[in-house]
Amino acid sequence: MAEVSPPLGLLELASVARAEDAEVSVVDFNLLYHLDPRLRDWDFYATATELLLREQADVYGFTSMAVDSHVALELARLVKQAEPSCVTVFGGSHFSSSACEFLGCYPWVDYIARGEGESAFASLVRCLASGAVALCKDIPGLWSQSSTADKGASTVSPPPPAFDLVNIDAYFRLNPRRTLDFEASRGCRFKCAFCYSPLHYTEAHSFQIDETLCRLASLKRLGADHVFFVDDNFLNWPAFAVQFCRELDMARLGLQWTCYATFPQLNTNTILWMRRAGCAAVFSGIDAVGETSQCIFNKRFASNLGSMRCRIEQCVELGIVPTCAFLLSPPSHPCGADVNAVIGAALVAREAGAQVRLNTFTPYTGTPSQRGLPGRTEFDELKVRLLLDVPECVETNAYARSHPELFPFHARYVPKEEWTSFIGLSHCLFTLLHAHSVDLLQMWKLYGMSPVDFAEQILKEMQDIMLVPKERRREEELELASQLFGNVICGDSVSLPSEAGRTL
Fold first, then answer.
1. Which of 310, 320, 290, 279 is nearest to 500 (CA)?
2. In the chain, which stretches have pLDDT less than 70?
3. Which of 43, 72, 294, 357 is most exposed by smallest CB count within 10 Å?
4. Span 284-312, pLDDT tens digits
5. Measured between alpha carbons, how far is 3 from 174 in angstroms, rounded to an integer?
6. Are 499 and 447 in contact, with CB atoms under 8 Å apart?
7. Hey, is 90 helix, strand or coil?
8. Domains of the chain as residue ranges with CATH
9. Who's near 71: CB < 8 A, 6+ residues apart?
């Protein structure tokens, strides 16, 4: 709830539609879910559909990153059922990645904008307003049941978001840091095999510094104290990023900010200038650790753990809070062989002062990593129920039952027994890394028991983590961890560590 902020992409598209003389409204269920008890306590879909129909719109647009795409689909189905003449348009990285598949499976989806949608959406609004519906099939970047045009997306600089369409104060009441999302660039020059970005953006590009600074100043006038740069990679071009930070520092806007940044570009100079310009935290996906993972995922950001530690320590010393994400894969996946290397790197990051996230490998639709899966994708909601803090309507995905390949968060790509064990292990390892990183490291070095072995013992004692109430799961894991730490230190037999866990 503390991260709720106005929907930047939708507000930019709202400006696009306004430029075509369309009347526009924005309904943000991320916000309304916290304000309207009917969305939480009654029937989410019935209430949400009622709110959408109240707008009496000719065109309804929906966007999603991935985990809640089924919610957008169901809302569109219900709206279309009530108002068959309305037009539905979808966008965002998930729908964009598999436009043909979504259009083929769900007939109430009229259009999907692929990639950066501003130009395609403007053309669609223009055609619909003029009644030239037949021309919609020839709009670049826009897919429909009968598209014949080149499918490449047109790239334009985003217009200023139409913040006047939302109640900023309502967001700030839920968001005590008074954070607004912002973008200074799009895309990433790295081509990681598991990432949506190379599919969504034709190329990485930054926006002009002067214009970016003017827009940041406008966010300050709206009452923002903190800005989250949603750019895929703030450090695509380090020299440009440093120049931007120099000018942002001189502008004295009084804004703190957070960003995503690739780890190899976090050197002494970039860290220094980012901090001087107001950077308070940085999120970096280390992701692939171990030779197999780095090769398969096409990402080699953690070849030298000593260098990783040094850069984390530099961030911490200057007052930037680093968060490092690491990718875990199930045992039968080729990258599963690197699990101990991943956890070892995560412990080094924690010891150096970073926050750590463990992400389970999600084969995003259309990516090289998904196309390379050897097995069949099956419906499974365990991951989203156990590892993600989302509402019930997001946890439950009926659409994934018939098309699990289109909904990566509600599917598994390994046998059920292996998946259940792997997801439980990931949950427990995350708990331990945050609460007992020092103890885990010492136990591994002194007693030869890896964190994986230790977490497996905790889960064995719990028997079935899903039977434990959600609010009690991490608490129970920590209680069992304290008991087992004592057993290991006292020399009591807990389990025989695997050979893979005997060395750090």
1. 290
2. 1-2, 135, 145-157, 489-504
3. 43
4. 999 999 999 999 999 988 888 889 999 99
5. 8
6. no
7. strand
8. 8-144 (3.40.50), 168-486 (3.80.30.20)
9. 29, 64, 393, 394
Structure tokens at 285: 């996906």
Q: How crowded is residue 496: how many other Cβ atoms within 10 Å of its Cβ?
A: 10
Alpha-carbon span 79 to 59, nearest angstrom: 11
Q: Which two tokens stand for residue 304?
A: 């030298």
- The residues near 166 (Cβ < 8 Å, ≥ 6 apart) are 6, 7, 11, 26, 28, 31
Nearest to 104 by CA among 405, 408, 409, 412: 405
In one-letter notation, the amino acid at residue 120 is: A
Nearest Cα to Cα of residue 368 among 414, 423, 299, 302: 299
Helix ranges, 252-303 (H): 268-276, 291-296
Query: E strands within 177-231?
Result: 179-182, 185-186, 205-206, 226-229
pLDDT at 351: 95
Report the phi/psi class of residue 56: left, alpha or beta, with left for phi > 0 and alpha for psi in -120 to 50.
Answer: left
d(CA 353, CA 315): 9
pLDDT digits (tens, 9 = 90+) for 334-364: 999 999 999 999 999 999 999 999 999 999 9
* Gap between the Cα atoms of 216 and 26, Å rounded: 22
- Mind giving me the DSSP string for 401-420? HH-GGG-GGGEESS-HHHHH
Q: Which two tokens stand for residue 280?
A: 């308070």
pTM of the predicted protein model: 0.92
Residue 354 CB partners (closer than 8 Å, separation 6+):
312, 315, 316, 322, 323, 324
d(CA 10, CA 24): 10
